[in-house]
Amino acid sequence: MTPLRNSKQRDIIRQALMNRTDHPTAETIYAELKPQYPRLSLGTVYRNLMLLKNLGEIQSIDIGDGVTHFDYDIFPHAHFLCSRCGRVSDIKIRDIERIKNSFSRDFKGRITTCNVNFIGICPECLNEENNDKEQ
Ligand SMILES: [Zn+2]
Ligand SMILES: [Zn+2]
Q1: What is d(CA 59, CA 116) in angstroms, rounded to the nearest whole number?
Q2: What residue ranges define each of the domains in the chain, with the CATH number in brackets?
Q3: How far, in Å, from the CA of 81 to the mean position of ligand 2?
Q4: 88 C-alpha to center of ligand 1: Å?
Q5: What is the maximal distance between C-alpha atoms in the chain?
Q6: If you measure from the C-alpha of residue 79 to the centroid of ligand 2, how many angstroms do you get, rounded to a whole number?
Q7: Which ligand is nearest to the Cα of residue 84, counting in written order?
Q8: Which residues contact 94 (CB under 8 A, 6 or more apart)?
Q9: pLDDT, tens digit (0-9, with 9 covering 90-100), for 89-133
Q10: How large a percentage of the chain has pLDDT more than 70?
């Protein structure tokens, strides 16, 4: 594989992630690109996502459901995992940087990232639950 081809693949994968806000896994990105790029493998998608993450262009999220999610938005923000449908959504909290900074002041080591994850039932699932009760 030539370097040119590698960077083209990375562009395609970066673009695919940029177009979504649902924090897809490598499998989701792979399934989306596969029809258009039949020669792409899941391993390539995963490797490129990890590479983009190491370059600081995207972030990966481990929210405790056993799979790695990817996010094009690298600004520090919190995430919410729906324990029913598995959807991962953003929670905009302005204070994450402040939490990190205030801990960093008292901590003798070096803090580089701060993950804030919430787990519960998303509005859509909660609605369904309420509708089921009414019937
Ligand atoms: Zn849900
Ligand atoms: Zn996010």
Answers
A1: 14
A2: 1-71 (1.10.10.10), 75-135 (3.30.1490.190)
A3: 11
A4: 9
A5: 60
A6: 6
A7: 1
A8: none
A9: 999 887 887 887 888 888 899 887 778 899 999 999 999 988 888
A10: 96
CA 46 to ligand 2 center in whole angstroms:
18
Q: Are strands 88-91 and 68-71 parallel, antiparallel or unpaired?
A: unpaired
pLDDT tens-digit readout, 10-31: 999 999 999 999 999 999 999 9
The whole-chain average pLDDT of the chain stands at 90
CA distances, 122 to each of 32, 71, 75, 82 (Å):
24, 19, 22, 5
Ligand of minimum distance to the alpha carbon of 93: 2
Residue 108, both tokens: 């003798």
Would you call 133 exposed, middle or buried from its count of C-beta atoms within 10 A (0-12, 13-18, 19+)?
exposed
Own/partner contacts of 109-115, CB < 8 Å, gap of 24 or more, are: 114/76, 115/61, 115/62, 115/79
pTM listed for this prediction: 0.83
